[in-house]
Amino acid sequence: MTPVFTPFHHGGSGPPLVLIHGITDTWSTWELVIPPLERKFEVLAVTLPGHAGGPALKGDFTADTLPAGIEAAMDGVGFGSAHVAGNSLGGWVALRLAERGRALSVSAFAPVGGWSADFQERHAFDYFVTQQELVKRAAPFAREIAATPEGRRQATRFIVEDDSLITAEMVVRQLVGAANCPAAIPLVKFAREPGFQFDPDRVDCPVRFIWGTSDQLLRWPETAVRFQEKWFPDAVYVELDGVGHCPQLEVPAETAEMIAGTARLA
Q1: Per-residue DSSP letters for 35-59?
Q2: Whole-angstrom Cα distance, residue 70 to residue 48?
Q3: Does 250 map to a domain?
Q4: Domain count, the chain
């Protein structure tokens, strides 16, 4: 059976919290951290525009496309502002929401955009272009791939160091969702020119950066150079020893506590 992708998950009670996934992913990347977070927050986990289950892309892709999509979802559930946590691309969107006055706090897990120009050309964007083609070819065989431990490991080796919490169904959703992500190539084109930028003077809330030391996609600390040296030198930076690119899939309890801890700083 083909997975059904929905635009968002909304539940729990307490202060508002928005969760934002990375490129080619969906809101379900947060499924392991949502239960503990819903005991403390009213949680809105959103799928970005142009991703499986999310709103369709409209017009040219700009720096405002994804933040505006999240703001529309926030407006739909009555969130004027909220604590925000994002992973990878979602970390950049979370920081943009802070620029736009919609974030009470930001937990940015390995956000994109902090790398040097050399890294940007050599690795990150080229990887996504080639990977997208591979995923499209693999997606029809997602269940066969996910049925074996080795298949699950190969499918997730760039996003987690330890795949013990990742189920076969999670791998199927990851592969099928990534293959149905029309935003992937427009995002790469945008990232090359004009690229990910920030105006840190407009960010007026607590910001915490969290990075796995075993991240294979956005390696720590070299891909955080602009965050640490240019944009957010006074922010809190936390290392997760031995953890990969998506802590929410690998150390969900610690991830949930990191998000709650950042919110307590507000």
Answers
A1: HHHHTTSEEEEEPPTTSTTSPPP-S
A2: 7
A3: yes
A4: 1
The two counts, helices (H) then strands (E), for the chain are 12, 7
Question: How many Å from the N-terminal Cα to the C-terminal Cα in the chain?
Answer: 43
Torsion sign across C-alpha atoms 252, 255, 261, 264: negative
User: Which residue range(s) make up the domain with 134?
Assistant: 8-264
Distance CA 160, CA 247 (A): 7
Domain-embedded: residue 166: yes
List of residues 6+ apart from 177 with CB closer than 8 A: 3, 5, 24, 25, 26, 28, 51, 52, 53
- CA 262 – CA 266 distance, rounded (Å): 7
pLDDT in tens, 141-186: 999 999 999 999 999 999 999 999 999 999 999 999 999 999 998 9
Q: Does 46 fall in a domain?
A: yes
Residue 159 within any structural domain of the chain:
yes
What is the pTM (predicted TM-score) of this model? Answer: 0.96
